[in-house]
Amino acid sequence: MASGDFLDLSKLPQRSTVASQRWSSLMTIVLVVCSLISVLTTLGIIAMLVYEASGFFANDQIRLSRFFTDTKWTVGQTQGEIHYGILPLLSGTLRITAIAMLIALPLGVITAVYLSEFASKRVRSILKPALEVLAGIPTVVLGYFAMVFITPYVLQPLGDFKTFNAAAAGIAVGILCLPLVTSLAEDALRAVPRSLREGALGLGATRFETTVKVVLPAALSGIIAAFLLALARAIGETMVVALAAGSTPTWTLDPRLQSQTMAGYIVNTFQSESVVPGSLSYYSIYSVAAVLFVITFGITVLGQYIRRRFREVYN
Amino acid sequence: MAISNTLNRTRSVGSRKSFDRGFQIICLLVASLAIVILVMLVTAILFKGGGWLSWGFLVNSHRENLPEQSGVGQAIIGSLVVCLICGLAAMPIGIATAVFLEEYQPLSRLGRLLHGFIQLNVSNLAGVPSIVYGILGVTAFVYMFGWFGQIQANKPPPVEMGASYFYQTKTLGKKWVQFPASDRTKQVFVIESSLSAFNESGQPIELNVIDRSATAPTEPELRDRTVYAGATASILATKRPWYFHLPFSKSVLSAGLTLALVILPIVIIAAQEAIRAVPSSLREAAYGLGANKWQVVSTTVLPSALPGIMTGAILAMSRAIGEAAPLLAVMGGVISTTNSLGNLMDKSPVLPVTIYRWAQDENPAFENLAAAAIIVLLVFLLLMNSIAILVRNRAERKYA
Amino acid sequence: MNLRCWLALSVALSFCSFLGCDRGGVASKPVPAEKPSVAIGGGGAAPASSLSGKVDIQGSSTVEPISIKAKELFNAVHPKVEFSVSGQGTSNGFEALSKRECDICDASRSIKKEELERSKANSTQFIELPIAYDGLTVVVNKGNDWVKQLTVEQLKQIFREDFAVKTWKDIDASWPDQKISIYAPGIKSGTHDYFVEVIGKRDGKKLRSDEQTTLSEDDKQLAIGVKGDKYAIGFFGYSYYEAAKSELTAIAIVNPKSGEAVLPSPQSIETNNYAPLSRPLFWYINSESLQRAEVREFVDFAFENISKVVTEAGYVPLPSSVYSAVQAHIEKGLNGPHFFDTEGKERHGPLNETYVEANLVK
Fold first, then answer.
1. CATH code of the domain in which C208 resides
2. A67 in contact with C, Cβ within 8 Å
3. In this complex, is the C-beta atom of B340 within 8 Å of any C-beta atom belonging to chain C?
């Protein structure tokens, strides 16, 4: 270890004076205050969502039960009778997230298996940077790719896909989550002690059998955590759906039609409304955001919890 | 043991080996899919947008329905300014939080609870969708919870700093002159008598006021500074670079602060890992020499963790430069402004929002321009990542 | 992760993108960017005007191209004046105007009674200025070869909420048995209001909003939607059809008076032959804002060059008698609406007859 590079003894005070002690206590307070800002952010989000969403439900026209059961969402689209069931938005989110997970999860886990069990150093030096680059691509770019490339050249030759459809958005979100699943799953696989692998190999198992029957089950909770965290990312994804998935909520399972997710609805409304504080559309943004926040926050908390529990088991 | 049970099933060694081979090949194919997708993405973007890149593209700003004359000049400046504000806000707070979480392990029960709570909070905030941060930004920065009222046309903002007010009027020679205003709430000023003003080049002149019934002067120099009595002059605000008002409303300041909230968890986690990597022997040596907590942190831990923190910060900023959703909420879909950014309260287009707007334009040429803008954005990202890696490599060399 | 790897990638990316210049294909080689020459006022190197200020225009996405064109021409002469133009719908524009949050409201229909009441309640005064003619264009996909013309009755069947036919075959048995995809402006759009007035107001019916319908205040989104869907139909202002002419087909509408099917064009719109979908577009200006030098100068400039502004934006200029009336209104500062009478009933008729000082309701 290079000495003297960053531990310059002449710069270090010889002893702790009273003044520097007071300064130290002051800085402790400053640090605590700064740390509380992150807590303030969470509290701020929760407080704001609760306060404004309650404004939505305080309106005479709105009843809480209909919010969760009605299968049409027409806020901001019709005058007169307004449907405010969140189910179409939920179904849109579900459709896109399901397609995304169908792509990201198997591909991600298998890639992680390859990276941790089989890959040579050369392959790793190509694959890991590629995944890092893929992870760093902004979401607008992927949304553009979905709209301009996936829909016309990949999907429409296959069938009757509309200009804005859920499948293209789902594929793009899957590509987005792929690096995340891969890196988290790889972490989980690497955490499995070598002794387990060596034991299986010593008993005559092939690499395939070792992986599938020993390592994967051992890393299962880590992989579940990876799945949950990627799921939260997919649910909250905004720009890809805003560009490629369309702006009409539909209550159907058909991936060829357009669909609007909760996050997509929020962005579309910000764009098409001069957001007038106090109008029904304004409040609807907050109530949808509240549902979105509860879902993603819940999944993230669960995923982090499983990840931490899993890490403790092996340490 | 499960292993021996499953292995006792009779299957020829050969078939198991070929299965193993097949599995490895499948894994390799799947893993290379990531590379294939990446190559497809980059090729498609280059194909669509490559032909539209030029020096003019980098300097011009958006012209409606004139794709050949549009460019990302304003968007690049806007992105840089917003990222700068974001970094200046997020870094100190993020590093401070990380220092607190890593160095100040409390002993009391309450302290440990607080500590654990903050740590939990940070890990979970990283998973919140960026649009929710956008909504928070709108409520907290744009409208400021309504504490300062709303900004209306034809009225000055409730709290303001750095603006000087003038009245402007048109003279007989069709030139515009300005003179200072004493009451900024009065929108219109009726000119009755002569006063000193400034002409179009900014030179002081004496305004000549004549009666409506009188004959108008004929020399151009006099006409250029003559008005009829009773002419109205309307209010105008000139803003200095440090112009500032409350509430922030849609501005690059609100955008930068909102983005700071988005990347704050990332900065904290990255800084934490960098601080954790500092060997404890360094700390113990400093303590051993009699330094107190803050001295240890400021003279030993932070300087040695700095390269790692910088790397993490740059990577967080490269995330921020590509975020569109919170900016759409906070600044709106701004695609061009008449004048370039003059102060922090102006709106400005930024690269990701410009890409989004262009991708949605019905003029098909703008779709290609969006691809060209994406190339510019990706080049920026590559540059930032390269700098981060450079910093990291230099730090690693130090440790080696 | 190798630094060399990253640097190589950056160089390769930049290199490839300039290589892409030759691989044209979809992208045509662009003309090198030139500064736009000062088109108004006979050119010549005049010193830059020091007129400054800010003008905020909100409202109809149909009228937005006119405002943007006027702004661009105006900025060539007065570069220091800042503009903020947005097109989120006529209703949103009127809302902002009544709250005095904008200076000019772009409107693709005249003001409604409720909006008038709201402005009065907020003590907001405005001046109503017609600015151009528009022919609301009904478009279908380029691959649609079965629709040659549509009658108003057929429009009702497609677009109204009570008929709401599901497939093309339901309208005409010789047409394909495929679901119709509808792309229409949303409820905040003046185009929406005008269309509903034509096809449904008398029966009190509104535009459909079901799973086959996409509503958006952004006309560009509608154009993209129809462009990509063979069985789609949509409608928006003529200027948006003009901009995407190569990719969309306009449908001739049967004029109920003459029985002839007429395609929208500047001539047919001006003579009102393209009926009943020809309509006037408006600017509503906050009277308080009009006292500001930059706003007044902008409005004067726009109307001095109105033909150029309107035609370059893709719409049709009004008859000159109407424009003279507009100038008179600005000069005299005549606030108020023209299209209601004193009892609050609506006034209809050709513009040069209804837009007169006598019809002002103060």
1. 3.40.190.10
2. no
3. no
B55-147+249-399: CATH number: 1.10.3720.10
Domain termination residue (choose one: C270, C305, C332) = C270
| pLDDT less than 70: residues of chain C | 1-47, 362
Domain that holds residue C228: 137-270
Residue B167 distance to chain C (closest CA, Å): 9
Left if phi > 0, otherwise alpha if psi is -120 to 50, otherwise beta: which for C310? Answer: alpha
Q: How large is the ipTM?
A: 0.88
**Same-domain check for residues C203 and C101:** no
Mean pLDDT of chain B: 86
A26-72 pLDDT, tens digit each: 888 888 888 888 889 999 999 999 988 887 777 767 777 778 887 77
CA distance B226 to B210: 7
- Residue that terminates a domain, selected from C270, C289, C312: C270
Same domain? For C169 and C214 the reply is yes
- pLDDT tens-digit series, residues A256-311: 888 889 998 888 888 765 556 667 777 888 889 999 999 999 999 998 888 888 77
CATH fold of A87-314 reads MetI-like fold (1.10.3720)
When mean pLDDT is compared across B5-19, B209-223, C74-88, the lowest value belongs to B5-19
- Strand-pairing partners, residue B206, are B196
The answer to whether C243 contacts B65, with C-beta atoms less than 8 Å apart, is yes
Q: Does the bond joining C32 to the residue before it have cis omega, within 30 degrees of 0?
A: no
* Domain annotation covers residue C243: yes
What's the gap in Å between the CA of A152 and the closest CA on chain C?
9
Q: Average of pLDDT values for A70-95?
A: 78
Q: Give the DSSP H/E element, type plus range, for residue B327.
A: helix B325-331
Let me know whether C228 and C149 are in one domain: yes
